[in-house]
Amino acid sequence: MAKKLTPFERRRQRVRTALVSRGGGRPRLSIHRSGRHIYAQVIDDAAGKTVAAASTIEKDAKASTGATMAAAAAVGKVVAERAKQAGVTKVVFDRGGFLFHGRVKALADAAREGGLEF
Q1: H-helix or E-strand spanning residue 31
Q2: 103 φ, ψ (degrees, to nearest 5)
Q3: What is the pTM of this model?
């Protein structure tokens, strides 16, 4: 008997399937959000390598304490800078199973302002 998936897991599968079909070989900007921190990685799936990463744990990306929208925006700017330094400007946005709202949206908007195209 197959395990019943939660709504989060179903959403995550649906998002990843769409990324694979329309990704076109671009690296993906993967987001993970916890209650305390937010993490972002630019991953090259073809090579199996992480190109750039940033999180609220680091001093460079920490705008304020806690998991706020300002902190998420700071992470977005830092990950965009690091990706551009690595030669990546076009990515696909992998929000995982998280809704595109609040901290996830703030990170995405800041990454766009930082020069990433998705």
Answers
A1: strand 28-33
A2: -65, -35
A3: 0.87
Distance (Å, whole) CA 57 – CA 6: 28
Q: What number of residues does the chain have?
A: 118
Number of alpha helices (DSSP H) and beta strands (DSSP E) in the chain: 3, 4
CB 55 within 8 A of CB 75: yes
Quote the tokens at residue 57.
């744990």
Question: For residues 97 and 11, is the Cβ–Cβ distance under 8 A?
Answer: yes
Nearest CA to 93 among 80, 81, 74? 80
pLDDT band at 105, cuts 50/70/90?
very high
Q: What is the pLDDT of residues 43-100, one digit of tens each?
A: 998 889 999 999 999 887 666 666 689 999 999 999 999 999 999 999 999 999 999 9
Q: Which residue has the higher pLDDT, 23 or 116?
A: 116
Query: Which one, of 97, 92, 62, lies nearest residue 77 by Cα?
Result: 62
**At which residue do the structure tokens 């090259």 appear?**
44
Structure tokens at 96: 């995982």
- Tokens 């090579």 -> residue: 47
